[in-house]
Each structure stands twice: as structure tokens, then as C-alpha cells.
TrEMBL record:
<keyword id="KW-0808">Transferase</keyword>
<dbReference type="GO" id="GO:0046316">
    <property type="term" value="F:gluconokinase activity"/>
</dbReference>
<dbReference type="InterPro" id="IPR018483">
    <property type="entry name" value="Carb_kinase_FGGY_CS"/>
</dbReference>
<feature type="domain" description="Carbohydrate kinase FGGY N-terminal">
    <location>
        <begin position="4"/>
        <end position="245"/>
    </location>
</feature>
<dbReference type="Pfam" id="PF02782">
    <property type="entry name" value="FGGY_C"/>
</dbReference>
<dbReference type="InterPro" id="IPR043129">
    <property type="entry name" value="ATPase_NBD"/>
</dbReference>
<keyword id="KW-0418">Kinase</keyword>
<dbReference type="InterPro" id="IPR018485">
    <property type="entry name" value="FGGY_C"/>
</dbReference>
<dbReference type="InterPro" id="IPR050406">
    <property type="entry name" value="FGGY_Carb_Kinase"/>
</dbReference>
<protein>
    <submittedName>
        <fullName>Gluconokinase</fullName>
        <ecNumber>2.7.1.12</ecNumber>
    </submittedName>
</protein>
<dbReference type="Pfam" id="PF00370">
    <property type="entry name" value="FGGY_N"/>
</dbReference>
<dbReference type="GO" id="GO:0005975">
    <property type="term" value="P:carbohydrate metabolic process"/>
</dbReference>
<comment type="similarity">
    <text>Belongs to the FGGY kinase family.</text>
</comment>
<feature type="domain" description="Carbohydrate kinase FGGY C-terminal">
    <location>
        <begin position="254"/>
        <end position="446"/>
    </location>
</feature>
<dbReference type="InterPro" id="IPR018484">
    <property type="entry name" value="FGGY_N"/>
</dbReference>
<dbReference type="InterPro" id="IPR000577">
    <property type="entry name" value="Carb_kinase_FGGY"/>
</dbReference>
Length: 499
């Protein structure tokens, strides 16, 4: 009898899933997109039921005609989401996502008074508005009725699992990204909860990332046509599972992701923290912690440029029946290094690592009359890569990185990967499937199902395709330009904040 496995990633812009066979091959992929709600400046929310419906749709389509052969379903999910539910599990708020900046004033205060750094040394979650810790402070002071009525404060993954199983559980990985969870004790931090005025029973029970739920509600058993007790593995966060799904689980190998946002991450066997709180430290599995830094502005900056300035290219791409990014990537390819003197600081949505400053703004520098759209297009890509290097150099302070595994939507562009390799000066390997959190969820599911004995055993299911080596001459030019990039940020930061 055939055996099949499902990995699902609940992401920011879509839920993606894959069906794997017993040899680890992907035999089906399904995704479902959803939107972001932004009714006020700095507010970024999503409809939790829309996301739940997307998860149900993806799972239903993946297991269609294979229902009796499914061994497990394992989850990945975006970090830093928070929502309030009442005692019946009904949402009292939308899902407030990582990109929400409404709590910026609290972050600023906690940086100044030193309490934010104190919390960071216990939780590994940087002092930033993405953190549910500061979002809850905002709810406490600005939505008192909601705050007082809340039965639980939960992430989007917890909401999905509650709807399916009528249980409130959260894995150590998602919990470790809340700013409320002690990564040394693996418990909700009672001192932090007491300081902000929330009782521990307002949060879900914490469980290992390989923990599985088996008692699916009857209505969903019937809907999915499942006749046996399939294991639903709670899994981990998307960032941690992107490392696992790309094979970057030792301290010499970094995973670089550029999708909507971006990140640089390295795995260590114990928690590592930074005296200046420039990096995060999140839990993946026993003796496996992921340290790194995330940037807000990855592919979302390129998309903004496309949507705002590339109407002509979009019409031409439609006529040619190709993706508009193919035309834009040709602009990048045919523009010299340094974008003819144009530089882009990619802080369209503020910035996380290494500045953790929600009030930063984006800007183009060095504009002259000779510059054209092609220069600006390449400057966008170079600016995002400079931002990645900014984080990469901090991670290297914890040890030399010999290899980079790259994933995310940017790997569709050969020129973008080469520019990143030249800017960071390191060989880059591309994973065969850039939906690495889905692969990571699958591997964690195998571990939970005792089909592999360690995380390291799961690396055999990770396949790489192309390798890119840095051009040494290009690297020298980019070293000089990166020094200007750093100087520009330091000099312009007060002005960008005022703007």
C-alpha cells in the first residue's frame, strides 16, 4: 500500500502545501492566496477565517483520492502573529501580523528604559513592533474591552489547530518568537507576563515541535473523507523550517531566504544572543536553535517598484505572454554594477535586523539626469542584497560561514542570485524546491512519525540544483559600494525617521 505525507506552510500572502510520496518526492502542490488588511497607517492585519479556509482548501486538494493512504500532515507557519479569541474560540480581533507597526512607541520606550533588552536576553525575540509582546501592550491600552474579554491570545497556527481539534496548543518554535517565552526554560515567562498584566492561562499549552494531534473533529474527518486517525504534527515556524528544508542545520551553513521579506539564519546547538540585540534566536527542535536576522523589504520592494513604475512593461509582458519580472530582470542584467551611481535604501516598511527601527523609510540616492528606469530596477535588487549582507556580517561574528543555501521566490532569477553571491562573497547553492518551509515541515513530520531518527537524517530529502560562485572583481566593487550604503544609513537615519 502506498504511503503519502503532507507539508503545509501558512504564510503571509498564501498557504502552500505539498504531497510527498514514500521516497520524499513531491507529487502535488497546491496554494491559496489571501490579502492583507491595512485600514490605518502602520496597521497590518488578516482575516483569520480566510486563512483557515485557505488551509482547509489546500489540504482537501492535496489529499484528494489519497485519503486512506495519508500518514501525517505537518505544519509550518509565519511567526509573530497574534489575535484574541473569546471562550467559544471566536475571533475578537483580526490576526495582527509581523508587519504591523502600531506598537512602535512601546518599542521605543522599552529600548530607552532597558527593559526591552532584559526581555530579549530571556526570549531571544528582538525589541521590535513585530513582537506579540508589544502588540499585546498596545491592545491592553487601546482596546481595553477586547483585551479584558479575551479568553486566549493565540497565533494564526493555533487558531487553525483549535478549529480542527478544539485544543489550544502552540509549539516551542512559534512560542519562542512571541517575546513572551523563555527559550532557556522552554516556558512562558511569568515575570514578563506579570509585568504586562496578563495571566499565563491566557496562552496555549506549549509542546515540542514534533507533537501530534490525532482527534480531528468529526465534521472535518467527514469533510476530508479521512477514515483513519491521521497524525497532525504541530510543526514549527516558517523561518526555522526554511533552514531545515534547505539543509542548513549546522553552524557553518547559512540559509538565506528572499521572498516577501528576507532573512539570514544559521543553526546552533544552544541559544546564542547578541549584546546589542541585533539578531533573533528561535527554537527548532531539541538542541537546535536558529539564530539570524530578518529584513522587512525583500520581494515586496521589487513588487512595489513593478506595481508603481512598470505599467509599460506589464502591458508588454502581457502581449508577449511572459511574466513581467522577466523583462525587469533583463533590465538588471543589462545594467552595470552599481546601477550607474544609483543606490537604493530598501526600507519601504521600516526595518528589522540589524536596526530594528519601524520608522526608517526607503530612498534612492545618487540620481542624475543620465539615469533611467533600468538603473532604478537594478538599484532595487542591489539594495535588497546590501540589506542581506548587513545581516550576514553580523551572523559571521558568531563563526565563519562556508556555504549558503538560498531559497524563496528570488531564486527564479539567475541574475539576482549572482548579484547576491557577488555582494556577500560566498558560494550559493539553490535548493530544488524553493518552498523550503513545506519541505522542513515534511522532515519534522517524518521525525515525529519515527521514520527518521534525527533532524540530520532528514537532509537526504533536500536536493540542490545550481551553484553560484562570487565574481572576485565584482566583489571588490561591491565592497566599496556597501561601505557607502552603510555610511548613507548612518548619516540619513535621523532624516528618514523624521520623514
Amino acid at each position: 500500500m502506498a504511503r503519502y505525507y503532507v507539508g503545509i506552510d501558512i504564510g503571509t500572502t498564501s498557504t502552500k502545501g505539498a504531497l510527498f510520496d514514500e521516497y520524499g518526492c513531491v507529487i502535488k502542490k497546491i496554494s491559496k492566496e489571501y490579502g492583507i488588511i491595512s485600514l490605518q497607517n502602520g496597521f497590518m492585519e488578516q482575516n483569520p477565517d480566510e486563512i483557515f479556509d485557505a488551509v482547509v482548501y489546500v489540504l482537501k486538494e492535496l489529499i484528494l483520492n489519497k485519503e486512506n493512504d495519508i500518514e501525517f500532515v505537518s505544519f509550518s507557519s509565519m511567526m509573530h502573529s497574534i489575535m484574541a479569541v473569546d471562550n467559544h474560540g471566536y475571533p475578537l480581533t483580526n490576526c495582527i501580523i509581523w508587519a504591523d507597526n502600531r506598537s512602535s512607541s512601546y518599542v521605543k520606550s522599552y529600548k530607552i528604559n532597558g527593559v526591552g533588552l532584559k526581555y530579549y536576553t530571556k526570549t531571544g525575540t528582538p525589541i521590535h513592533a513585530m513582537s506579540p509582546l508589544y502588540k499585546l501592550m498596545w491592545l491592553r491600552d487601546n482596546e481595553k474591552d477586547v483585551f479584558d474579554r479575551a479568553y486566549k491570545f493565540i497565533s494564526i497556527k493555533e487558531y487553525v489547530l483549535y478549529k480542527l481539534f478544539n485544543e489550544y496548543v502552540v509549539d516551542y518554535s512559534i512560542a519562542s518568537a512571541t517575546g513572551l517565552f523563555n527559550i532557556f526554560d522552554l516556558k512562558w515567562d511569568e515575570e514578563i507576563l506579570s509585568d504586562i498584566g496578563i495571566k499565563i492561562d491566557k496562552f496555549s499549552d506549549t509542546v515540542e515541535t514534533t507533537f501530534s494531534l490525532k482527534k480531528l473533529k468529526d465534521e472535518y474527518k467527514k469533510f476530508f473523507n479521512l477514515n483513519k486517525n491521521v497524525h497532525f504534527v504541530v510543526g514549527a515556524s516558517d523561518g526555522c523550517l526554511a533552514n531545515l528544508g534547505s539543509g542548513a542545520i549546522d553552524n557553518k551553513t547559512a540559509a538565506i531566504t528572499i521572498g516577501t521579506s528576507g532573512a539570514v539564519r544559521v543553526a546552533f546547538d544552544r541559544p546564542y544572543l547578541d549584546n546589542d540585540a541585533r539578531i533573533f534566536c528561535y527554537y527548532l527542535y531539541k538542541n537546535k536553535y536558529i539564530i539570524g536576522g530578518a529584513i522587512n523589504n525583500g520581494g515586496i520592494a521589487y513588487k512595489w517598484f513593478k506595481d508603481t513604475f512598470a505599467d509599460e512593461e506589464q502591458h508588454r509582458a502581457k502581449d508577449l505572454n511572459i511574466d513581467v519580472y522577466e523583462l525587469l530582470n533583463e533590465y538588471v542584467k543589462n545594467t552595470p554594477i552599481g546601477s550607474n551611481g544609483v543606490m537604493f535604501l530598501p526600507f519601504l516598511s521600516g526595518e528589522r535586523s540589524p536596526y530594528w527601527n519601524s520608522n526608517l523609510k526607503g530612498t534612492f540616492l545618487g540620481i542624475k539626469t543620465i539615469n533611467n528606469k533600468k538603473d532604478f530596477t537594478r538599484a532595487i535588487i542591489e539594495g535588497i542584497c546590501y540589506s542581506i549582507r548587513d545581516v550576514y556580517e553580523i551572523i559571521e561574528e558568531f563563526g565563519e560561514i562556508n556555504n549558503v543555501k538560498a531559497n524563496g521566490g528570488f531564486v527564479k532569477s539567475n541574475i539576482w542570485i549572482q548579484i547576491l553571491s557577488d555582494i556577500i562573497g560566498t558560494k550559493i547553492e539553490i535548493t530544488e524546491d524553493f518552498d523550503t518551509p513545506v519541505i522542513g515541515a515534511y522532515i519534522l513530520g517524518l521525525l515525529s512519525n519515527k521514520e527518521i531518527s534525527s533532524i540530520e537524517d532528514g537532509i537526504k530529502f533536500v536536493k540542490t540544483t545550481n551553484k553560484y560562485n562570487p565574481n572576485i572583481q565584482n566583489k571588490k566593487i561591491y565592497d566599496y559600494l556597501f561601505s557607502i550604503y552603510k555610511e548613507a544609513i548612518n548619516g540619513l537615519m535621523p532624516i528618514l525617521e523624521k520623514l
